[in-house]
Design a protein that fits this description.
mainly beta, 2 helices, globular, disordered N terminus
Length: 181
């Protein structure tokens, strides 16, 4: 039941955000928006290559007794792009205080095909030092000349199990599901 609720919320979030193909510009816009917030508990920094954000760092802010702000590493996102500028993958790392290093946690892979856009989530397996097969998948599909789209959320318990459809919602009236590249 918990997974069904989560999948339904993911579908609703995707629809309310007018989901679009993620591009280098999308990543830059998100970075500019979050890094400009002054009342946040987090601070952000980014590395760029040829104008594209390749790594984004998230630092947690803490206030000491003197009122001074300290920054502590929290998350790191590594981005890879396809030749056309669409986002191909995003790898998430979490900071380990005990190891004083970044530990790989998960990856999203993005695939754009002629009538659909797919995002797949995989966990990092520290025992095999590689990513497991995806355990979650979200597919955005267009029908009837971009007038109706469908968001499908899938989940599987184990990387070797078949995907099970958690929810599927058809939406009409959105201006367009996919943004221009």
């Amino acid at each position: 039941m918990k997974k069904l609720v989560f999948a339904t919320l993911m579908c609703l979030a995707a629809m309310s955000a007018k989901a679009q193909v993620l591009t280098s510009k999308t990543v830059s816009n998100v970075y500019e928006q979050v890094s400009s917030q002054t009342e946040s508990d987090y601070a952000f920094n980014a590395e760029r290559t040829a104008g594209d954000i390749t790594t984004m760092y998230v630092y947690q802010k803490t206030l000491n007794r003197k009122g001074e702000v300290s920054l502590h590493p929290h998350l790191k996102y590594a981005y890879e792009y396809a030749a056309d500028g669409t986002l191909a993958s995003r790898v998430t790392y979490r900071w380990s205080n005990s190891l004083r290093d970044w530990l790989c946690a998960s990856r999203y892979d993005y695939t754009l095909e002629h009538d659909s856009y797919r995002a797949e989530y995989s966990r990092y397996n520290h025992q095999t030092d590689s990513f497991d097969q995806p355990v979650e998948r979200m597919v955005y599909t267009l029908f009837n000349g971009d007038m109706v789209n469908c968001v499908s959320c899938y989940h599987r318990e184990r990387p070797t199990s078949p995907f099970q459809l958690d929810c599927q919602v058809a939406v009409s009236g959105l201006p367009q599901l996919f943004a221009g590249k």
